[in-house]
Amino acid sequence: MIERARPKAAHADPFASTFHFLSALDLFRDLVTAEEIEECDEAIQVMNCKAGYVFYTPGQTGEVLFILERGMAQIYRMSPEGRKLVMARLPPMSFFSEMSCIGHGMHDSFAEAISDSHICTMRRSDVERLILSRPRVGLRLLEALGQRMVELERRLEEGTFKGLIPRIATLLLNEARGAEIAGLTHQDIADRLGIYRETATNALNQLKSFGIIEIGRRRIGILDRGRLERTAAERGRRRRPR
Fold first, then answer.
1. What whole-number distance in Å separates Cα of residue 148 and Cα of residue 87?
2. Which of the residues in the chain have pLDDT under 70?
3. Is residue 9 located within the same domain as residue 75?
4. Are 54 and 111 in contact (CB under 8 A)?
5. CA distance 227 to 242
6. pLDDT by residue (tens digit) across 71-83?
7. Burial (0-12, 13-18, 19+ Cβ within 10 Å), 224
8. What is the CATH number of the domain that holds 137?
9. Structure pTM?
């Protein structure tokens, strides 16, 4: 479900609202004048969407830049067998796009909201004009895309050289807040690693049997962080964590 955001109230200060949002967004952090902010504001469309809304699917070429102001989104691909592989999970204040003009053509991918979200969009023509008139915006785009490529290379290396349990241990450590991982289901783990849910469950149960983690309802607790860290660092396919 999607709905256009309501217009700002007449008494609201649109410049202050837009300036706060754009200045907080790393992509536009070099825009500091009223003229620059107004130029972007005029090019931006806003909308609200519910969790589960799909922004684009493979083969679509809408040529739109999506800027996530609030909420969460994910980019993923589907195998011929119907297995999902999450390429990226995007927090608030990040962007995504299928636009080929910024080297980000993801025409084989899906983009989906995983929570209720507030989205700003810019057309390709507006993005190109902004990059040409404000080269630093283009530089921020390159920096962000470069960071994502580094992350994808790291995940590819892990998938090639690490066994399944070390990969799951790494994911748990990355998602942990203190000694707890909340809101991460077995299916989420499977989708993040490109494996079947049953495979993820079996691996988690092994870590549980070793006394490294405990498993609750939509919650995983870390009982022995040292062993979990050593497991995450292992190469090859050792069966029993040290």
1. 10
2. 1-20, 32, 61-62, 100-107, 236-242
3. yes
4. yes
5. 6
6. 999 999 998 888 8
7. middle
8. 2.60.120.10
9. 0.73
